[in-house]
Amino acid sequence: MVLSVSERTFTQEVLESPIPVLVNFEAPWCGLCRIIHPLLLQFQIQCGDEIKLVGVNADQNFKLSTTYKLKSLPTLLLIENGTVRHRLEGFRGREDLRLALEEIKASYSNYPKTHKNSKTVDLECRSA
Fold first, then answer.
1. Candidates 5, 22, 33, 70; catalytic one
2. Residue 98: how many CB atoms within 10 A of its CB?
3. pLDDT grade, residue 11 (50/70/90)?
4. Hey, is 116 helix, strand or coil?
């Protein structure tokens, strides 16, 4: 189950999170959003407590959509210590997303656990 976050809870659940957060901006009418949902759930299980997964309804949270300059849905942002470290948008399908998520997971799985308290970590993530 993905935690649903709104403008009211975004700061606490995402920006102040002690672990990196993968934010999934989606909408009920978005077909690709529904298609990738199982992959995101699998990613959440594989990462355990290393990365937190949350969902944001872009239609109901217009300020967040504007703040993060969404151009398309779904858009995924990996946010660590309040900073966007990785942005995934415009992927063509499940395989594109799967490869990008594997890259993110590998970069955090191989990284020392000290990142949880550090404010200066730069993982230099790349889009797939």
1. 33
2. 16
3. very high
4. helix
